[in-house]
Write a structure and sequence with these properties.
Elements (H helix, E strand, L loop, with lengths): L2 H7 L16 E3 L11 E4 L12 H7 L3 E5 L3 H10 L4 E5 L2 H14 L5 E5 L4 H12 L5 E3 L9 H6 L8 E5 L8 H8 L3 E4 L13 H9 L7 E4 L4 H9 L7 E2 L2 E2 L6 E8 L4 E7 L2 E7 L4 H16 L4 H8 L9 E6 L3 E5 L6 H13 L6 E6 L8 H14 L4 E5 L1 H5 L10 E3 L2 H7 L9 E5 L6 H8 L7 E5 H13 L6 E5 L1 H5 L3 H10 L4 E4 L2 H9 L6 E3 L7 H6 L3 E4 L2 H14 L6 E6 L14 H9 L5 E7 L11 H21 L12 E3 L3 H6 L7 E4 L10 H4 L6 E13 L4 E2 L5 E2 L4 E6 L17 E4 L2 E6 L7 E4 L10 E5 L2 H10 L4 H6 L6 E6 L1
Parallel strand pairs: 1-2, 2-3, 3-4, 5-7, 5-8, 6-7, 8-9, 9-10, 11-12, 16-20, 17-18, 17-20, 18-19, 21-38, 22-23, 22-29, 23-24, 24-25, 25-26, 26-27, 27-28
Antiparallel strand pairs: 12-13, 13-14, 15-16, 15-38, 21-30, 30-33, 30-37, 31-32, 33-36, 34-35, 34-37, 35-36
Length: 838
């Protein structure tokens, strides 16, 4: 694409272009993109806390030559831009608007039907099911995963090219005014409105306003598909002037719909939908039993009827529907491996996203990709696999295993990757030696029909039925919430001690590093050493340095908390003996402002400054900090303010006394005292840095803050056995529960060796079985415990949730007479952690 074309498309662009012509193929907004960026146009999007302008120079060094930057950034980043000689810059008022305008122009170059989907729930599933249903007869382009935001939509639409026959894109909004912008990008010819719910309700005056805003996507489409049983949607469509005279292809249970849902019959593993269209009745079977799947399938069925597919053909296609994997899953695997399971869909775009994730995963240097044939790609086979091979090589894959006849035919394209090829999954499972996988990251990426779930079962570390699910997307959401509560210049230190509050230190630290946390903090040096060995490069403070660990602290570039003169003297001696000659080692100074745990007192400050300033001292102070004792308790606010006032005065004295130790390499000393509750309750005391702990993991004592946080950890197990217990019989050790009536009990696979407190037994604690809260009865055993499930519809193998949101976690901690911190950190290492990320 030539520069003059871009200038025409991006209406707010200036004329400042370094070269007369520019060409590119891909649009990117994330500088961490894997592989070659020479053919990319980078949009340097500014946010409240960051700007893409910071990463322009790094991208330039990697080969990118095309940049769209905010016009307002010229003052701060002009010198940086001028160092990128030979690059093309477009200076625009709004970078996201420019991205949308460019993608909207691309959309208009291709005269194909485009389905636009919005609604509160089901958008991604409906979109992916449409692709499943139609890809064997049409070349379909669609949004990757749930790319439905102001940035995700234009990146999705940019994928359209001359080979595609149908586009399917989803659009999501969170406030008024957003949908009109997305409409200009997608320009749908067919609209699907899935449903309306409570999501983002706080940003709209009324539910009707939210419906009306979502309908903006469809004001220019040829036809709108929706369910008339959703009265709020039906009423809004009927009242809107812009929809009068527009073709409506509705479905629902009432007469007068284009597709009438006559009955729904739920069987053991499937649902039968009796539908009527054009006077003809048909039975359509889907391999799901939940109500949401039935509704999602009906939107797809209505679309297929509208497109002219016959009832028998639709029924045949629907029987093959498969679940949609909404998130990428990380599992501990055999022989110290990490399994990245993204095996439910495969195209070039989703392959690129998954490879990008693995590229930034630091647990292992060696990385293996197990991939199936790419189905329904709509391009010549040789071209398809040449592109796939290029992506794989750019992302540092050490070994490639291809499964499928097409990959076998094109194996010459993968030479030099230590490649092995198998005609099908069964052959791979039978012939491959799984002992060859050791201490590596394994990405599993396959089309659904190759049944890679069987491969995943072989690779995963064997574990019992109790699992801690860790949602890394929610962790990042919580991180960004607290970022929104501090100034852009305030640094953020994340607490990953105690294995990240039970969530797993390496995986959590990797996510924090990827999302630009400034510092990490651990309790003991061995935690920091483990992070360094797993590729974590962020600065790491050690809060409890022990003399035996000083050599590791120095060797692995950890930064100890100096809280006493004893620690100062012993660590100084260790640095003198084993530290690099002439260099200074970073440390942090803790002062005790009232908690009376660790730290220097007011009377120690002058001597402390003297020692740090003494000739030959090789310790460099990076920060001064203190701990708040009760920042979450409004009744103790006077004491908290007293601590903050003391800290301001004491840290000021230290900074003045240490001014002579500063240098060009270490020009300042940071001050920090706020913890999670302090961040939200005492924002005036942010100073240079804040320390985020329990809030990062989705817990806050403040109701308003808690409503903005998302749960990170979910502890679940399964029912091992159900038993009928007659009235008068007892259960468990010491007969501490006796049935008062004929009862049904469930034995579940979790006990005190897994971290379940024995205080929760004998009816003190409870768990969720489906939608029912049931008590834990009798004494909790080492490996299992008992539930009273009398009157509850449940079966052996059913899931049991011990905690999964703040409410359940808080109730469990209160029942055990403790706090959420202890419940989270008590979950045993033998409980397998499974990580999810979209």
């Amino acid at each position: 694409m030539k520069a003059i074309e871009i200038n025409t498309i991006i209406r707010s662009v200036s004329s400042e272009v370094v070269q007369p012509e520019a060409s590119f193929e891909h649009l990117i907004t994330d500088s961490r993109r894997a592989g070659d960026v020479a053919d990319c146009l980078f949009f340097a999007i500014p946010t409240k806390r960051n700007t893409g302008c910071r990463y322009v120079e790094d991208l330039f060094r990697r080969g990118c030559r095309n940049f769209v930057v905010p016009a307002a950034a010229a003052a701060d980043y002009g010198a940086l831009f001028s160092r990128c000689r030979g690059a093309n810059f477009w200076h625009v008022k709004e970078v996201v608007a420019a991205l949308q305008q460019l993608a909207g122009w691309r959309r208009l170059q291709y005269d194909i039907p485009v389905v636009g989907i919005t609604g509160s729930n089901g958008k991604t599933i409906v979109k992916d099911w449409i692709v499943q249903l139609l890809s064997d007869s049409l070349r379909v382009v669609s949004s990757p995963r749930s790319y439905n935001s102001q940035i995700g939509v234009p990146l999705s639409v940019w994928q359209i090219d001359g080979t595609h026959q149908l586009g399917v894109f989803e659009a999501g909004i969170s406030e008024a005014g957003e949908m009109e912008r997305l409409r200009e990008v997608i320009n749908p010819t067919v609209g699907i409105f899935t449903n309306i719910g409570q999501a983002h309700e706080e940003n709209f005056l009324t539910r009707y306003q939210k419906v009306a805003e979502k309908l903006q996507l469809f004001t220019r489409c040829d036809v709108l598909i929706y369910c008339t049983d959703h009265k709020e949607i039906h009423s809004a469509v009927s009242e809107k002037e812009s929809f009068r005279g527009k073709r409506l292809f509705t479905w629902g249970t009432g007469e007068g719909n284009a597709v009438r849902l006559c009955s729904v019959a739920v069987e053991e593993r499937r649902t039968r939908l009796a539908v009527e269209c054009g006077g003809r009745r048909a039975d359509i079977e889907i391999p799901f039993v939940d109500r949401a799947s039935a509704e999602n399938a009906m939107h797809c069925i209505a679309l297929l009827f509208f497109l002219g597919y016959g009832a028998d053909d639709i029924a045949r296609r629907c029987r093959r529907l498969t679940p949609v994997a909404m998130r990428l899953e990380l599992n501990e695997a055999v022989n110290n491996c990490l399994l990245v399971n993204d095996s439910y869909s495969l195209d070039l775009n989703s392959l690129s996203i998954a490879l990008d994730y693995v590229r930034h995963e630091r647990s292992h240097f060696k990385k293996t990709l197990i991939m199936s044939d790419i189905l329904q790609a709509g391009m010549p086979e040789a071209e398809l696999y040449a592109q796939a091979s290029a992506l794989i090589r750019q992302c540092g894959i050490s070994r490639f295993i291809g499964i499928g006849e097409a990959l076998c035919r094109n194996q010459s394209l993968f030479e030099g990757l230590g490649a092995a090829f198998f005609a099908d999954t069964e052959t791979f499972l039978r012939r491959h030696n799984f002992d060859t996988f050791a201490s590596e990251t394994i990405l599993l990426k396959g089309a659904r029909r190759f049944r890679f779930e069987d491969v995943a079962k072989m690779l995963q570390r064997k574990s019992h039925q109790t699992i801690m699910e860790v949602n890394l997307d929610n962790l990042v959401s919580n991180l960004n919430y607290y970022r929104s509560r501090i100034r852009p210049t305030t640094k953020l230190m994340a607490m990953v001690k105690a294995a990240s509050y039970g969530a797993g230190k390496v995986e959590v630290a990797s996510a924090l590093q990827y999302n630009h946390a400034d510092y990490l903090t651990v309790a003991y040096s061995d935690e920091g050493v483990d992070l360094r060995r797993n590729g974590i490069t962020l600065p790491i403070m050690v809060m409890n340095p022990e003399e035996e660990s000083f050599d590791d602290i120095i060797r692995y570039r950890l930064e100890p908390d100096i809280y006493s003169f004893r620690v100062f003297d012993s660590f100084s001696e260790a640095v003198r003996l084993i530290g690099e000659a002439g260099s200074k080692v970073p440390v942090h100074v803790e002062v005790d402002t009232g908690m009376h745990r660790l730290g220097f007192g007011c009377d120690d400050l002058d001597e402390l400054c003297r020692r740090f300033g003494a000739e030959g001292c090789r310790l460099q102070v990076k920060s001064v900090f203190s701990h708040l004792a009760c920042s979450e308790d409004p009744a103790m606010d006077d004491f908290t303010r007293l601590q903050i006032d003391r800290f301001r005065r004491w840290s000021g004295r230290l900074k003045a006394g240490l001014a002579g130790t500063l240098s060009a390499e270490n020009p300042s000393i940071d001050c920090h005292i706020l913890n999670s509750s302090g961040i939200t309750r005492f924002p005036e005391a942010q100073m240079d840095m804040v320390r985020l702990g329990i809030g990062l993991y989705g817990i806050s004592p403040e109701p308003e803050v808690q409503s903005r946080l998302r749960p990170v950890s979910r502890l679940k197990t399964r029912i091992s056995q159900l038993k009928r217990v007659p009235a008068g019989d007892s259960v468990g050790y010491n007969r501490r529960w006796v049935a008062e009536r004929d009862s049904v009990i469930a034995i579940i696979s979790i006990g005190y060796a897994d971290g379940l407190s024995r205080h929760l037994g004998c009816g003190n604690g409870s768990v969720m079985v489906g939608d029912a809260r049931v008590p834990i009865i009798g004494s909790i055993c080492m490996d299992m415990c008992f539930l009273d499930v009398t009157g509850v519809d449940c079966h052996e193998g059913d899931e049991v949730v011990l905690f999964g949101d703040a409410r359940l976690l808080q109730q469990m901690s209160e029942s055990a007479g403790t706090i959420p911190y202890e419940i989270l950190t008590s979950v045993s290492p033998r409980v397998k952690r499974v990580y999810y990320q979209e």
